[in-house]
Amino acid sequence: MERLKQIILAKGKVLSNTVLKVDAFLNHQIDPSLMEEIGKEFADRFADAGITKILTLESSGIAPAVMAGLVLKVPVVFARKRKSLTLTEHLYSAQVHSFTKQETNEISISQSFITQDDTVLIIDDFLANGQAVFGLIDILKQAKATIAGIGIVIEKSFQDGGKSIRNAGYRVESLARIAHLSDGNVTFLEEEN
Ligand code: 5GP
User: Which of 74, 109, 167, 173 has the fewest Cβ atoms nearer than 10 Å?
Assistant: First the structure.
């Protein structure tokens, strides 16, 4: 997605050879107009997939997921990372090791919001080693839901997640694919240019 790539180049900060900071438009301050375009793009790519729900992970997946849900006219469920006083029983849960925080979280959703009748699109902000997506897949398998595919805003293609998830047979649609981060620069995959 050309506009997304231009914003990554203009406003993203390369923190190291593996971490890109996008606090200016996605992870802290949010650019609603960009999110709207991202939502439309995901909705377009999965238009014929029969999606009935979108599943994401709090908190940075929520903005793009809600925008896609608005266009597809389906509810958006976000898995929670913290135990909540109101989210106590009848849960589907999975363990997810966070790439950026270097800690393992249990993520959970209420069993009432996704069932075996659902066809689900997973959406997340970044794809690195795939831990977050595999955690969400684990939850959907527990719910016996159909997994239509995975929509990612920024895939770091030099890390293993994209390959592992595609090798496991899932459709992955990433709006920007980064070939490498080095010396403060972002290089996108050839096919994306
Ligand atoms: P994975 O689970 O695929 O290893 O990592 C994906 C998760 O880690 C995303 O949900 C995202 O929150 C976070 N993440 C991974 N890499 C980056 C990065 O380079 N920048 C930012 N801002 N978040 C990242």
Answer: 167
Q: Relative to the CA of 26, which ligand 1 atom is closest?
A: 22
The CATH code for residues 35-177 is 3.40.50.2020
* CB-based contacts of 116, cutoff 8 Å, min separation 6: 143, 144, 145
**Which pLDDT value is given to residue 44?**
98
Confidence of residue 192 (pLDDT cuts 50, 70, 90): very low
Report the distance separating Cα 16 and Cα 108, nearest Å: 31
Helix segments in 46-177, DSSP class H: 62-72, 131-142, 161-167
Ligand 1: distance of its center to the CA of 29 in Å?
Answer: 17
The structure's pTM equals 0.96
Vertex 58 angle, CA 55 and 61, to 5° = 65
The domain segmentation of the chain, as residue ranges, is: 35-177
Length of the chain: 193
Structure token pair of residue 166: 């595609």
Hunting for tokens 């180049």 — which residue is that? 9
Q: 89 pLDDT band (50/70/90 cuts)? A: confident
Ligand 1 neighbourhood includes 99 CB (under 6 angstroms): yes
The token pair at 174 is: 């990433």
| 114 C-beta closer than 6 A to ligand 1 | no
